[in-house]
Design goal:
elongated; F-box domain-containing protein; 3-stranded parallel sheet; about 30% helix; F-box_dom; 15-stranded parallel sheet; about 525 residues; LRR_At1g61320_AtMIF1; At1g61320/At1g61330-like; single chain; 12 helices
Length: about 525
């Protein structure tokens, strides 16, 4: 066939092409070796810093040059992922002993000089020998010049350790070794800083999780960390009080998460702009004394605690005049939200959740007047977005169809000119919730979108295999839809969009034909 080349022609052409490519490769290799040898060592060090840790360690055996670069590697990040332990590898029962031996080999072949970042994940087992091993590893890497130090201790099955199982050697941060540390992140250890510790001079970020540290030790550390900008305390079980001195002029972010013994937070730092506090709802009786002072810089607050709605209107309106974003998760409220004279003059985003993780306890809101949340709208003249996560259960005989109101109109004199987006999750057919929604519609001329979610606010079939919607929600859904059709739809202005999020009628768990309502 004419379109087939002769076999001899093909082989001769292939050989010729192969020879030309070999010559090109040889010449290119010579040029490459010449150009590589001319590269300065600092550029090579920068290039090698992008190699994964295990690859950089292997490259050290190629030549003395690579070995010298490896022994001065600046970023050391040890975890099962960076060391190449995939999920399939775990299924082959690669033990933590092998991981520990690899880390030990790598660090003992590192000079310890030039380290800027050390992130060390340790997976046990925990005993005197492994404690000594951790001490030796830290002594190798924590040297003058280090800037970021992270120690993460895991318990069995690669879960984060929830208790102190190692005593961090604080003397390691003395004698100038810790002078340059900017970020310190400890998880699952005991940390007892004493006089002489030198990591406070340059420290800008401090994160302690499941760390045993006492209140006076934390106070000593904070009083000497004048450059601190970010402070995070999570599940620290020995802290009773947190007192932040006014000397921390640069501190802008404070986060306290589920410290079970905590009784007092007192901050005199003048420039905190973001404050996050989360309290475990398992102990609703524990009360927190919160003193944030008057902070003109405070822009964002997240508080998860009981009676937080009353606290916000009673305290925050006067002490945080420049607040722009406020999120509150309240486990229960003893009284309905009060009406106050002070205002959030700059508040733009307001998120309120009235719930408990223990759904059987949602009756704590049985006597709460949810319409009293109007006080927040009245106190926020610049509000643009309002999100409400309502209680899941309603009082008996509280349906708007069982006790229809005489009127659902606007309260005279109230107008929310800047409010544009409103979302109510767990919307039910309760009289007060429908009344609140109608009041917002009548008082908000600039409204652009109203979203009423009659589900539990969880994932749907489009995201997971099934909808996570409770039986009670399915039982209430037809009534909630009827309330929207009867009282709310006619009040939605033509310039606004109404979105109704319903339980998925195609889900096998749904006992009703919601599409055929």
């Amino acid at each position: 066939m004419p379109w087939l080349a002769h076999p001899l022609d093909v082989s001769v052409g292939s050989v010729a092409k192969r020879k030309r490519s070999q010559m090109d490769v040889s010449q290119t290799g010579k040029r490459l070796r010449y150009s590589v040898s001319r590269l300065p060592e600092d550029i090579w060090r920068h290039i090698c810093s992008f190699l994964p840790l295990k690859d950089a360690a292997r490259a050290a055996s190629v030549s003395q040059s690579f070995k010298r670069l490896w022994r001065c590697r600046s970023n050391l990040i040890f975890s099962k992922k960076t060391m190449g332990y995939t999920k399939s590898a775990r299924r082959r029962r690669i033990t933590t002993r092998d991981y520990n031996s690899r880390v030990d080999h790598i660090l003992r072949n590192h000079l310890g000089t030039g380290v800027k970042t050390l992130s060390l994940g340790f997976y046990g087992p925990y005993n005197a020998n492994t404690g000594n091993c951790l001490d030796s590893w830290l002594q190798i890497a924590v040297t003058p010049g280090i800037e970021e130090l992270s120690l993460i201790l895991y318990s069995k099955s690669d879960h984060l350790s929830e208790k102190a199982i190692y005593n961090f050697p604080c003397p390691l941060l003395s004698n100038g070794s810790g002078n340059t540390i900017r970020e310190l992140d400890l998880l699952g250890c005991a940390f007892h800083p004493t006089v002489g510790i030198s990591c406070t001079r340059s420290l800008t970020s401090l994160c302690l999780s499941y760390v045993n540290i006492e209140s006076d030790e934390l106070g000593f550390l904070l009083s000497n960390s004048l450059a601190l900008e970010r402070l995070e305390l999570k599940d620290c079980s020995e802290i009773i009080s947190i007192k932040i001195p006014s000397l921390l002029q640069r501190l802008s972010y404070l986060m306290v998460f589920r410290c079970p013994m905590l009784q007092v937070i007192e901050s005199k730092a003048p420039n905190i702009s973001s404050f996050h506090y989360f309290h475990d709802d398992d102990d609703v009786d524990q009360q927190l004394q919160l003193f944030l002072g008057e902070s003109l810089q405070m822009k964002e607050i997240f508080i998860s605690h009981s009676c937080v709605l009353h606290y916000a209107l009673a305290v925050l309106t006067s002490s945080m005049p420049n607040l722009e974003r406020l999120t509150m998760h309240s486990y229960y409220e003893m009284v309905s939200t009060p009406t106050v004279a002070s205002k959030f003059l700059h508040l733009k985003y307001l998120n309120i959740s009235l719930f408990r993780w223990n759904f059987a306890s949602t009756y704590l809101y049985a006597d709460y007047d949810i319409f009293s949340l109007v006080s927040f709208l009245d106190a926020s003249p610049c509000l643009e977005t309002f999100n409400l996560d309502a209680p899941m259960r309603r009082r008996e005989h509280d349906s708007i169809f069982e006790d229809p109101p005489s009127q659902l109109g606007r309260i005279p004199g109230q107008c929310y000119d800047n409010l544009r987006h409103v979302k109510i999750t767990k919307f039910r057919s309760t009289k007060l919730l429908v009344k609140l929604t109608c009041h917002i519609l009548d008082s908000t001329p600039s409204l652009e979108c109203l979203t009423l979610d009659i589900t539990d606010g969880g994932p749907t079939c489009s995201e997971l295999d099934r909808c996570f919607v409770g039986k009670e929600t399915y039982m209430e859904a037809p009534k909630a839809l009827a309330a929207i059709q009867t009282y709310i739809e006619r009040k939605v202005p033509s310039t606004a969009k109404l979105n109704v999020v319903e339980p998925c009628s195609r889900c096998p768990a749904c006992p009703f034909d919601l599409q055929g309502r």
